[in-house]
Amino acid sequence: LFQPAVSVGNVGQLAIDLVISTLDMTKVGYFYTDCLVPMVGNNPYATSEENSKELSINAEVYLLPSKKLVVLQIRSPFIKNKYRLFCDTLLSWVKSCNCARVVVLSSSHAYQRDDEQLLGTPLRYLLTPDLEKAVGGHIQELKWKEMEKVAAYPGVNDTEKVLHIPGGGITKLLFTESCSKGIQMAVLLKFCSEGDNIPDAFALVNYLNDWLQLIKSEVNTSSQWKAPSSWRLLFGSGLPPALF
């Protein structure tokens, strides 16, 4: 199961868009919950005038049987104080469906990194203990950087470290709950800032592809991913050619 966290820059959701569009996944249902702001809109993955009239809502489920892959796309923010209820409902659904593994695509505020997190790649990962046993060796071969823990009380007590994902929405809650419930979960995230976050989405989905090889490619590039039709005016219509 792939799913985004509603986090800074909506990077996880944009990355999930790329997965669904590129793999041409089929919508098979909805994830009904009152924890998300209600929303309805046109089909974000329309390929023709006919299917552009299909409606989409705030949480939908897509399937690709050939890869044993299920994707939950979330398109609206959470209602205040309903984070934990959504987390409990989601993880109960994961267990009832016997999902082997869960991958959460997320992001975190770049400006709140500590000194150690400023070094090297802006991409990070987390694995629950159960998933660490299964894939930890492969992840080490990829030479990825694990999300660093930071001082709980900076400048006062630097020895006590905690997991801190500012701007990550429910990422930390999902991860810690999955650790305690024995769920195999990976979190892949990117440090970023608000703005045009399409490049961040490409970077995150390439990071995912390095591990799971959704698309066979020797070198990950943005051109191998298919952007959905809904991205056409995502950040405006662009400047008129006459201005150049």
UniProtKB/TrEMBL annotation:
Any GO CC annotation of this UniProt entry: cytosol
Query: What residue intervals traverse the membrane?
Result: none
InterPro entries assigned: Proteasome_assmbl_chaperone_2, Proteasome_assmbl_chp_2_euk, PSMG2_sf
Asked whether the UniProt record includes Ubl conjugation among its keywords, one would answer no
Lineage: superkingdom: Eukaryota
Compartments where located: Nucleus
Q: Which UniProt keywords apply?
A: Chaperone, Nucleus, Phosphoprotein
Quick one: where is this thing mainly located?
nucleus
Q: Name one GO biological process term.
A: proteasome assembly
- Short name of one Pfam family: PAC2
The Swiss-Prot or TrEMBL record describes its family as follows:
Belongs to the PSMG2 family.
- Quaternary state and partners of this protein? Forms a heterodimer with PSMG1. The PSMG1-PSMG2 heterodimer interacts directly with the PSMA5 and PSMA7 proteasome alpha subunits.
What this chain does, per the record?
Chaperone protein which promotes assembly of the 20S proteasome as part of a heterodimer with PSMG1. The PSMG1-PSMG2 heterodimer binds to the PSMA5 and PSMA7 proteasome subunits, promotes assembly of the proteasome alpha subunits into the heteroheptameric alpha ring and prevents alpha ring dimerization.
**Protein name per Swiss-Prot or TrEMBL:** Proteasome assembly chaperone 2
What is the organism of origin for this protein? Ramphastos sulfuratus
